[in-house]
């Protein structure tokens, strides 16, 4: 009886030792994070493996589990799943499995693994910054923005799809604008790729644009903000060019100079009259003789 109890204790200690040793040899992946911009989707995790490798499996909810072709027994800490998550509206979960090196003996039936949070490309990918052109009409009182849809990492046939191809009517754009010399900003939305704005004639306006998906949950509706672009300023009027103060100073200076000139002319005229207006003493003396 004592022998049997001792045997059970010995076997239990071996099992516990094997479990602990296995966990030490193949630690679980941690800090699993999805990084996705324009549907370029990468799963990242830690730590960097030492004497073991990782395999990534993924599945859509309610569907079969699959191994990522490029992430089987790799000593890396990220996996590009862009080409595997082809149904953009599905919700996916990925598992990162810690496994022994190829050819290394092992006695574990199930290896340590860690599951990611749920990820839906259509709802979760970040839309990158859009580009746009600024057009000013001849009258310089209207500005039109021509917005270019960002290109995605999703291909169809021989071309990459843009955001309009994928989101269709769900895609809008948020426009943030202001006068170039002002700090106050205004916002507008457009469902198309053009935006027209009536402006003060000849004034320069500056714009930022970002994708806006109103059907998403708050916090994931807006894409990256574009670079700032400004319309060229029109020709300035004489008053805008020099300013009221400068013009007033010039006018006052001209008036003062004019007064001084007039005063000088008056003084010279009076002196001239005083010099030639009195009787000629020498002439009077000759006449008296």
From TrEMBL:
Write down the membrane topology. Single-pass type I membrane protein
Superkingdom of origin organism = Eukaryota
Is Lipoprotein among this UniProt entry's keywords? yes
Q: Which PANTHER family match?
A: INTERFERON/INTERLEUKIN RECEPTOR, TISSUE FACTOR
Q: Where in the cell is it found?
A: Membrane
Which chain regions cross the lipid bilayer? 246-269
* Molecular function in Gene Ontology: cytokine receptor activity
Q: How does it assemble?
A: Interacts with HSPE; the interaction, inhibited by heparin, promotes the generation of activated factor X and activates coagulation in the presence of activated factor VII.
Q: Which GO terms describe its biological process?
A: blood coagulation; cytokine-mediated signaling pathway; sprouting angiogenesis
Report the protein's function: Initiates blood coagulation by forming a complex with circulating factor VII or VIIa. The [TF:VIIa] complex activates factors IX or X by specific limited proteolysis. TF plays a role in normal hemostasis by initiating the cell-surface assembly and propagation of the coagulation protease cascade.
Q: Which residues form the signal peptide?
A: 1-22
Family matches, as SUPFAM superfamilies:
Fibronectin type III
Give the originating organism.
Answer: Lepisosteus oculatus (Spotted gar)
Locate the Interferon/interleukin receptor domain: which residues?
125-231
Residue span(s) of domain Fibronectin type-III: 9-100
- This protein's name: Tissue factor
Q: Which family does it belong to?
A: Belongs to the tissue factor family.
